[in-house]
C-alpha cells in the first residue's frame, strides 16, 4: 500500500541537526573521535536547588497525574515575578502567562493559532530554521527580511515600510539574535513596535538568549505599546541549563494567549508537576547564578575565538549568546565548505551558517556548550592541521 505524506510537508525537510547528528554518530561508530561544536545544548547542570525540587516532588504519590493546560498558579506566578525582576515587565500571571513544553513547540502553537493560507510571515535571513518550517506547515507564505553585517544584523524597517506589506500578518524577531549574537537596543525595539503598530502586524519575539553573556537582559514587552502588537517566547533551556526539561513560556496579550490555549489544549496534556516545581525554583535564583554561568562561558568563548582565529575567521567582539558567529576566510568557498573541510581533516564539527539562510552562507557558528578541556582539544587539532598546510593554501 502506497501512503503518501501530507502536502504540507512538501517544502519542509528534516531538521538539519537531526540529519547531521546521524552522520556524526556514524563517524564515531567507525572509530573517529568527533568533537561536536555545533548544537547549543548546555552541558552544565541546573542549580542543585532545581534538581532537589524535582526529586522531592517526584517522590510524592500525588505528583504523577495529568496537569492543567495553563500550568500551576505557582509556575505562572514565578514567571511573572521573573519578568518583573529581570526585565521590568509586569505581567498578570492569571491571564498574560502561558507555560509551554518548550519554546520551540510554542512557535508551532502560535503559528497554528494565527496563520493559514493567504497569510504572509516575515522571517529573518539568517534566522532560526524552525521559523520557516512552522510558517510553511501552517500554509502561510514566507517572506524573508534581510539581516546583514553591514546593517548590524538588524532589519531595515524603513525599506520594509516602503514595500508592499499586503497580506503580512506576522513578523518573527529574535534578539539577542541567533545565530549572529546581535543585541537590539531600546531605540531599535521602539522603532520595531512603531512599525508593527502602523502596519497592523503581529510581532512574535523569540527571547531565549537574553541572559547569556549579556549584561542587559531585555524584553520586547518593556517597550511602550508593545503589548498591543506582540507576544514573547522565552525558555529556561539556555538561561538555566534545562534544555531537555522542555520548559518554555509565552507571555503578552491575554486575548491572544487565550486563542493559543485553544490550540495547545488539543496538543498536550500539561507539564509534569515535578518539572513545574523545579522550574519555580530555577526562576527564583538570584543574580549570582547568572554571574557564575557567564563566567564559564566567557572562559570558553576565549578558546573558541582562538579556534576561529586559527581558521582565519573574523568575529564581532560585541556579540552575545551561546554561540560565536564568524565570517569565513577568503580561502573558503562558504561556511559549508569550511565546515566540511574541518570535519574531514580534524573531526571537529562546526555549524555552517548557510543552514540559517542565504545571508549566512559566508559564516560559521561555534557553540560554547563544551568544556574548556574539549575546546582545548579542538583548538589543538585545528592548530596542528593548519601547521601541516602549505603557506600558499592559507589566507591567514
Oligomer: single chain
The residue-averaged pLDDT reads 93
**Strand-pairing-aware structural class:** alpha/beta
Order of helices and strands, N to C? HEHHEHEHEHEHEHEEHHHEEHEEEH
* Radius of gyration computed on alpha carbons: 22 Å
According to CATH, the fold-level topology of the largest domain is Aspartate Aminotransferase, domain 2
What is the percent of helical residues? 40-55%
Largest sheet: 7 strands, mixed
Give the overall shape: globular
User: Could you give the order of strands across the largest sheet?
Assistant: 2-8-7-6-5-3-4
What's the name of the CATH homologous superfamily of the largest domain?
Type I PLP-dependent aspartate aminotransferase-like (Major domain)
The proportion of strand residues reads: 5-15%
The number of helices is 13
CATH class of the largest domain: Alpha Beta
**Total discrete domains:** 2
Low-confidence stretches: none
CATH architectural arrangement of the largest domain: 3-Layer(aba) Sandwich
Care to describe what's here?
The protein has helices spanning 16-29, 48-58, 73-87, 103-114, 129-137, 157-162, 186-199, 226-229, 254-264, 273-283, 287-310, 335-346, 372-388, and strands at residues 35-36, 97-100, 120-125, 141-146, 168-173, 202-206, 230-235, 248-252, 314-315, 323-327, 348-349, 351-352, 363-367. It has 396 residues and is α/β, with parallel strands linked by helices. It folds into two domains: 7-45 and 288-389, Aspartate Aminotransferase, domain 1, CATH 3.90.1150; 62-286, Type I PLP-dependent aspartate aminotransferase-like (Major domain) (Aspartate Aminotransferase, domain 2). Strands 2-8-7-6-5-3-4 form a seven-stranded mixed beta sheet, with helices on both faces. Strands 9-10-13-12 form a four-stranded antiparallel beta sheet. Helix 2 (48-58) packs antiparallel against helix 10 (273-283). The protein is globular and about 65 Å long. InterPro entries: Aminotransferase_I/II_large, LL-DAP_aminotransferase, NHTrfase_class1_PyrdxlP-BS, PyrdxlP-dep_Trfase, PyrdxlP-dep_Trfase_major, PyrdxlP-dep_Trfase_small. Its EC number is 2.6.1.-.
Amino acid at each position: 500500500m502506497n501512503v503518501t505524506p501530507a502536502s504540507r510537508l512538501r517544502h519542509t525537510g528534516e531538521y538539519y541537526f537531526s540529519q547531521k547528528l546521524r552522520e556524526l554518530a556514524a563517524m564515531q561508530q567507525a572509530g573517529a573521535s568527533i568533537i561536536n561544536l555545533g548544537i547549543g545544548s548546555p552541558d552544565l547542570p541546573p542549580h542543585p536547588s532545581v534538581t532537589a525540587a524535582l526529586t522531592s516532588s517526584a517522590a510524592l504519590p500525588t505528583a504523577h497525574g495529568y496537569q492543567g493546560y495553563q500550568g500551576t498558579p505557582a509556575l505562572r506566578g514565578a514567571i511573572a515575578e521573573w519578568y518583573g525582576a529581570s526585565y521590568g515587565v509586569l505581567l498578570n500571571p492569571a491571564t498574560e502567562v502561558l507555560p509551554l513544553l518548550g519554546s520551540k513547540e510554542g512557535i508551532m502553537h502560535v503559528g497554528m493559532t494565527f496563520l493559514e493560507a493567504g497569510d504572509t510571515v516575515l522571517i529573518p535571513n539568517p534566522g532560526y530554521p524552525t521559523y520557516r518550517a512552522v510558517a510553511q506547515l501552517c500554509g502561510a507564505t514566507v517572506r524573508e527580511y534581510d539581516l546583514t553585517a553591514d546593517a548590524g544584523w538588524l532589519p531595515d524597517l524603513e525599506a520594509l515600510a516602503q514595500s508592499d506589506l499586503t497580506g503580512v500578518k506576522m513578523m518573527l524577531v529574535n534578539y539577542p539574535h541567533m545565530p549572529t549574537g546581535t543585541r537590539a537596543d531600546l531605540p531599535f525595539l521602539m522603532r520595531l513596535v512603531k512599525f508593527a503598530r502602523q502596519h497592523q502586524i503581529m510581532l512574535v519575539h523569540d527571547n531565549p538568549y537574553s541572559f547569556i553573556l549579556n549584561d542587559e537582559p531585555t524584553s520586547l514587552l518593556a517597550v511602550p505599546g508593545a503589548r498591543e502588537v506582540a507576544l514573547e517566547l522565552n525558555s529556561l533551556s539556555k538561561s538555566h541549563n534545562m534544555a531537555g526539561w522542555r520548559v518554555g513560556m509565552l507571555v503578552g496579550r491575554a486575548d491572544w494567549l487565550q486563542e493559543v490555549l485553544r490550540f495547545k489544549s488539543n496538543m498536550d496534556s500539561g507539564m509534569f508537576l515535578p518539572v513545574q516545581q523545579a522550574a519555580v525554583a530555577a526562576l527564583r535564583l538570584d543574580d549570582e547564578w547568572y554571574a557564575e554561568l557567564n563566567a564559564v562561558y566567557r572562559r570558553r568563548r576565549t578558546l573558541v575565538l582562538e579556534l576561529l582565529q586559527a581558521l582565519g575567521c573574523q568575529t564581532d567582539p560585541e556579540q552575545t549568546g551561546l554561540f560565536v558567529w564568524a565570517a569565513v576566510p577568503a580561502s573558503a568557498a562558504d561556511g559549508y565548505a569550511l565546515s566540511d573541510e574541518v570535519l574531514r581533516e580534524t573531526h571537529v564539527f562546526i555549524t555552517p551558517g548557510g543552514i540559517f539562510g542565504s545571508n549566512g552562507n559566508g559564516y560559521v557558528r561555534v557553540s560554547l556548550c563544551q568544556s574548556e578541556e574539549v575546546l582545548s582539544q579542538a583548538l589543538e587539532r585545528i592548530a596542528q592541521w593548519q601547521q601541516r598546510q602549505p603557506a600558499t593554501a592559507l589566507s591567514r
